[in-house]
What does this fold into?
Amino acid sequence: MKKYLLLFLLTVCPALAANEIVVKNQTPSLTNLYVVVEQQGTKYLLNEGTPSWDSTPTTGEWGNYDIALTEDAVLVGSYYATMPAISAGMVRVNLFQGSSPAYNDTRIDSVSYYWTGTYLLDPAAVLTVESTDATTYVESRTLPIASYATAASQTTVEGKVDTVDALVDTLVGEVVYATVNAVTDTRVFTITGGNIDTDTDLADAIVVAIDATDGKKSFGTVRTYSALTIKLDKGLSFTPENGDVIYFLGN
It folds into this structure.
């Protein structure tokens, strides 16, 4: 089976209003690729034509949910689609291939993202922000002036990072949370307190870990959860300590 890579544009520019969904593959001229967008947490499916969330989707209505992907005429091997105008929230984008979209088409890939209403945001890459200089990228909030041509350009980039940080703060305001209780390593730790219990479904939830000392954020995805022990798909950028706050998005 061909290996596909499902990606999404990450930008802090709200002017972006088309081709928010991007699928990249080394093989050009693929046909019949499409995505189906699911409202994470409810399993509602996005009716592209309305557009609205269908709370009672059926297999016979699959044709209402498929969003066709179109290959770029110049960047062959890259496929694009426009996200329908729907309210902000956590979504799961599922990639399929089928000549006549049907419920039993094989799902190739599936990724969770936050839809802001204008662009798809990858929380795992939220602090990687492109500056006004197309050759310069920021991967932390510590921005030495020597890295930029002028202090003014640094101020512009810092402003963008602050905007993304503010969005993350908004995301975590209404979600489940807990604090770190014991740590095995950057991938495995136990939690306590907050509004988490042993019955909370955290499968595939996106994790936002916040260092209680300096406020540093790191991101991951829950791979397994059992008896208040979390195992992530990859290690956090820092080793969590007792008292660090852990938020869970899209559980």
User: Anything to note?
Assistant: The chain has one helix and 19 strands.
